[in-house]
Amino acid sequence: MTNENQTKKFFIYARKSTDSEDRQVRSIADQLAELRELAKKENIDVVDTLVEKQTAKKPGRPVFAEMLKRIEAGEATGILAWHPDRLARNSVDGGQIIYLVDTGVIHELKFPTFWFDPTPQGKFMLSIAFGQSKYYIDNLSENIKRGHRQKLKNGLWPQMAPLGYLNNKETKQIYVDKEKSPLIKKAFEAYASGKYTLKEIRKIINDLGLKGRRDSLLSVSNFQYLLQNPFYYGLIRYNGEFFEGKHEPIIAKKLFDECQEVMKKKSKPQKVDEMKFFLYRGFFHCGECGFTITADRKIKKSGKQYVYYYCTKKNPNHICSQNVFTREENISSQINEAIQKVSLPDDWAEKMLAELENEKNEKAQSSRFFAQKTENEIKMIDEKLEKLMNAYLENALSLAEYRETKNKLVNQKQLLKDKLMSFEQKSNNRFELAAKFINTVKQAEIIALQENPEQGRDFLKKIGSNFRLSGQKLFCDFKNPFKILAEAEPRLWRGEATIAQNPNSENWRRGRDSNSRNP
Questions:
Q1: In CATH, what number is assigned to the domain containing residue 127?
Q2: Is pLDDT at 271 greater than 60 in this prediction?
Q3: Which of 78, 321, 419, 421 has the most CB atoms in a 10 Å sphere around its CB?
Q4: Residues 15 and 104 in one domain
Q5: CB neighbours (10 Å) of residue 210?
Q6: 280 lies in a domain?
Q7: In Å, what is the CA distance from 112 to each residue of 17, 106, 115?
Q8: Distance from C-alpha of 282 to C-alpha of 284, rounded to nearest angstrom
Q9: Which helix (H) or strand (E) holds 330?
């Protein structure tokens, strides 16, 4: 009897996965401690100790498969495991174990927590143990799916929060990641502009500091998935179906749709030349032929350097006659003059800010009418969704028909919600932007007098467009509402008209000029 026991050759097999079904299972170290104690007690010769960290829900575990091959090759005749569910939680692996016992390849199976004997009764009990393990997995999976469906109906994301959001372990909800969400929004805005490829977006946003899980850099495919995820504008897409999310959106649906349009067209964006060797390089076009103004640096005999700007004359359809070179200092001086045209005296600014506040209070009541109308439209869509659900439950619609109609209604509702939010923001932003404009033009003269060419250039970009050089003179089109100030400027400073004496006059409010002329 003792000699027979000494010839027993077993593999020790221990397994634990990170899946939820193994949360209560003993650790690998605990399993091995018990198995080695049992091997010593039973006088078992352990050929090898095999450890696997992988779920057994599906066939295909490499360590398990290698162990069975070695048993079939005659290296061992038995397996020592903590419980049958360590060997199999699916019908394929369980059936394979029982078949090898039937054919005599596996002589024995030993478990500290389960009795097994290679008899019909023992194999029957083993089949029940494997069946229970599979039932537990199947039931657990169904419970998880049921929980996910309930969360989705309540507008909650059932899994790990997407990039740009964080999980709240206490409330089981998600909230906006204040550090990463601005970079997510910047990625959408940059891509929607059509100026960048996905590869360029990846470099720009990664350089700004956006990182994924475990501080890893995002790949191009990560950005492609991110820019196609409706989660960021408030909807949850799960298994092809859309659900209204209760999480705070990072972007508006309009911005999301613009990104999808860019991606659909596969536009080839223009590369931005980041190497600006000259202050105004790429800033102006020729006022005659419309082609680019370039720059060059000249060194005089005295050793002093000057930067000159001139037309490239590369327009094949026009022979440009502009042969003049304009010095950089001359351009900077004219930019300061243009900026002063939109400056506003402090006393005017204060009166206009006070008038804006009064108008804001008057508009608040009328804005509520539009908001109520939009809220009623959202309520009607909610009623349609309720009826659609009832129709599906009564088998009046197929699942595909239900999902297709529901997705359209949910997207319509999101557009209305965005519209309502946008309107409420614009109602306030309109006055905020006007106040910002007034405060900006208050600073115009200060910026012009500071003689900071780079600051002056950037300010001119803000107030104008279509910058041209012709005959050493600067021309531009002032944007509204800066154009009004630029046209009214002569009388503002010289006090030659009624408008200069009374900033609340109707002429000013309409932005009219009785002696209008081009800026």
A1: 3.40.50.1390
A2: no
A3: 78
A4: yes
A5: 23
A6: no
A7: 20, 18, 8
A8: 6
A9: helix 328-340
Distance CA 58, CA 76 (A): 25
Helix (H) or strand (E) run with residue 464 in it: strand 464-470
- Total number of domains in the chain: 4
In a domain, 307, yes or no: yes
Q: Last residue of a domain, which of 250, 265, 280? A: 265
Q: Are residues 57 and 11 in the same domain?
A: yes
Please give the pLDDT value at position 519: 30
Same domain? For 37 and 119 the reply is yes
Q: And the tokens for 303?
A: 């050793």
Q: Check whether residue 337 and residue 464 sit in a common domain.
A: yes
Say if residue 368 is in the same domain as residue 333: no
For residue 261, what are the domain limits? 165-265
The rounded mean pLDDT for the chain is: 79
In one-letter notation, the amino acid at residue 457 is R
CATH number of residue 169's parent domain: 3.90.1750.20
β-strands 473-478, 173-176: how paired? unpaired
- 48: tokens are 């090898």
Q: Is residue 193 part of a domain?
A: yes
Q: With respect to residue 324, please indicate whether it lies within any of the assigned structural domains.
A: yes
pLDDT digit string (tens) for 431-441? 777 777 777 77
Structure tokens at 464: 């104008």
The whole-model pTM stands at: 0.38
Do residues 43 and 190 share a domain?
no
Contact (Cβ atoms closer than 8 angstroms) between residue 71 and residue 99? no
Query: For 93-114, what is the HEC assignment?
Result: HHHHHHHHHHCCCCCEEEECCE
At 199, give phi and psi (nearest 5°).
-65, -40
Q: Is 320 helix (H, G, I), strand (E, B) or coil?
A: coil
pLDDT single digits (tens) 487-501:
774 544 434 333 333
Pair 472, 465: CB distance under 8 Å: no
| Spatial CA neighbour of 213 closest among 255, 249, 163, 145 | 163
Determine if residue 37 is left, alpha or beta; phi over 0 gives left, psi from -120 to 50 gives alpha, anything else beta.
alpha
Same domain, 124 and 196: no
Q: Does the pLDDT of residue 349 top 70, yes or no?
A: yes
Quick count: other Cβ atoms within 10 Å of Cβ 369?
8
- Taking CA atoms, 514 is separated from 343, 415, 475, 483, 498, in Å, by 20, 44, 23, 15, 11
CB 241 within 8 A of CB 408: no
